């Protein structure tokens, strides 16, 4: 659809123009396909994801922006609302609460907010959700931090 | 995503294409995407029953629906039959209020050729644009929807190169037009109204806050994000008030429900949403001009259709 391509192109220009506006998000469009994007987001501070850099993959449908992009984590992450194997994200704005008022950039911001504020009552990762629901903050944080170190931090030496 | 290498992508690809029954049995594979697919399949099924915007029907067709139902409703339909010539149904997909408003408004302009009204509403649309900008929306997130609506205003005025007939308006509203917008026309215009409504509510959040608190526990911002901007979220009096105010278009809503409050004889309640002028100090009284609404909607609990006065 022409409209989705035009819209994505505007988003692309906006991203180029505001490259430094949000240092926590680096959104990149595939060289050959404007419907494929990847993003690098920084784990929010004071969370077990701090210091990690997480890669997201976007697949934008032809009906965009009437329909939401599909987004998943490519980097392994231990979080109640992210599927541990597939990286699928449980977030209302990516499903029924989507509206064209969102952009790929603001979706990244929403995902960072989700990392800082997990919703353990609608878990995709039940182990992670159960730790939080049972109040085992220490258990949750150490697991989440371990996976951040293993998967989201550059290897040293 | 589906073109990525690896087993995960392959599995996704399979589930995204269709939902074989055997996979539904396996709940481990039943991901959110499948649920969304299933929902849209159900919607597609519904779509076959009623088009986005139906044909004009006499009110006797409405009465036929309640033949074996509540006598109060049948009495009320008789009363309606004296004042209204026809009903035009819209699909109950959560967008019925906005779609009814869209069709009714554009049809009114097409029939009245009221250029003064078109000029007036264009001014309001420009105000709405400024409102969204001042609320921090990036232009490209809403500008396409705005320009589409403005184009339609030109189309329903006759004598332009791209003037359209009522038949074409109906086709567009049913997303069956072969024009550029094709199957997305209705969605795009509904989205325009959702942006306008959301902007007005947030601009006058102090005014709308108590009404929103009466409906949900949400803040004004949350309400707009969850109940106004997303497609398919149903409209309430908050939405109607905001849209009417923002565009300066009065709307009459006629209520067809089982309530029978009047002593001696059944009457049908209606409520006129009369736009207040943009100045929020006029939000309560003072700013309203007594005008007769040219848009009349029939409300039955959970749904809006279009009514045509005699």
UniProtKB/TrEMBL annotation, chain A:
GO BP annotation list: peroxisome organization
Residue numbers annotated as active site: 90 (glycyl thioester intermediate)
Record keywords: ATP-binding, Nucleotide-binding, Peroxisome biogenesis, Transferase, Ubl conjugation pathway
EC numbers for this chain: 2.3.2.23
Keyword Membrane set for record: no
UniProt keyword annotation of Nucleotide-binding present: yes
UBC core domain ranges (all copies): 3-153
Xref: Pfam families: UQ_con
UniProt cross-references to SMART domains, sorted A to Z: UBCc
GO molecular function: ATP binding; ubiquitin conjugating enzyme activity
Domain of life: Eukaryota
InterPro entries cross-referenced by the UniProt entry: Ub_conjugating_enzyme, UBC, UBQ-conjugating_AS, UBQ-conjugating_enzyme/RWD
PANTHER family tied to this protein: UBIQUITIN-CONJUGATING ENZYME E2
Entry similarity comment: Belongs to the ubiquitin-conjugating enzyme family.
Entry protein name: E2 ubiquitin-conjugating enzyme
Organism expressing this protein natively: Gossypium lobatum
From TrEMBL, chain B:
Catalytic activity entry: Thiol-dependent hydrolysis of ester, thioester, amide, peptide and isopeptide bonds formed by the C-terminal Gly of ubiquitin (a 76-residue protein attached to proteins as an intracellular targeting signal)
Biological processes annotated in GO: protein K48-linked deubiquitination; proteolysis
Keyword Secreted recorded: no
CC annotations in GO: nucleus
Annotated keywords: Hydrolase, Protease, Thiol protease, Ubl conjugation pathway
Protein family according to the UniProt entry: Belongs to the peptidase C65 family.
Name by which UniProt lists this protein: Ubiquitin thioesterase
